[in-house]
Amino acid sequence: MILRTTIQGLATAIKGLTLTVKHLFSARKARKTLDIKEEAYFDNQGGVTTVQFPKVKMPIPEVARYQLDVEIDDCIVCDLCAKACPVDCIAIEAIKSPDAIGKTSDGSVKRLYAAKFEIDMAKCMYCGLCTVVCPTECITMTDQYDRSTPNLADLNYSFSDMNEQEIAKRKEEWTRFQAEKEAAKKK
């Protein structure tokens, strides 16, 4: 029994060492770097491919999901992206406008100001649900993937272009409009 266990242990160790030595010698030759779009990308798995990262970057697929970006001029502040986000990494604050404030590139009428539009990429799980539900397609995933930083606060991106004075002005404008509307109802 003990002899049998010892022989099995040695046989397993020899198999493992053989595999390790095989990989060691096959790693001495460099594998040709292929573009991920090529048909034979997965055919040649022998050898080692080392990418000298900041200078050379790996080719990425066209449908890859990486850094989120928002074209705030096309945003109608509908809040659908924040509602679809499973990890609540999108924070939006809207201010109503008494009149239409413009149009997006696809012709949608804008009636809300984006007082706050922030995405916390530290929380984001890169699922892409926010990009799917956006009616104006203003939120997209870019091909930027290297956003490493030692400070988590650096991964919180703000896309709103309104300052505090403008936010206060727009809120006061809406309050005044509501008051005038109520006064007109009472007459």
Summed up, what is this model?
31% of the residues lie in helices and 16% in strands.
Strand and helix layout:
Blueprint (H helix, E strand, L loop, with lengths): L1 H25 L41 E3 L9 H5 L5 E7 L5 E2 L5 E2 L1 E9 L8 H5 L5 E3 L14 E3 L5 H23 L1
Antiparallel strand pairs: 1-6, 2-5, 3-4, 5-7
Quick one: biggest sheet?
Answer: 3 strands, antiparallel
State Rg: 28 Å
Low-confidence stretches: none
Major sheet strand order: 2-5-7
Element order, helices and strands?
HEHEEEEHEEH
Structural class: alpha+beta
Number of strands: 7
Q: What is the assembly state of the chains in this entry?
A: single chain
Which word captures the global form? elongated
Through-space gap between termini: 102 Å
Helix % is: 25-40%
Question: Please, what is the average pLDDT?
Answer: 86
Question: Could you tell me the strand content as a percent range?
Answer: 15-25%
Number of helices: 4
Which labels suit this protein?
31% helix; 7 strands; elongated; single chain; 3-stranded antiparallel β-sheet; 187 residues
Description:
The chain is of the alpha+beta class. 31% of the residues lie in helices and 16% in strands. It is built from four helices and seven strands. The strands form three sheets. The protein has a three-stranded antiparallel beta sheet with strand order 2-5-7. The chain is elongated. It starts with a helix and ends with a helix. The mean pLDDT is 86.
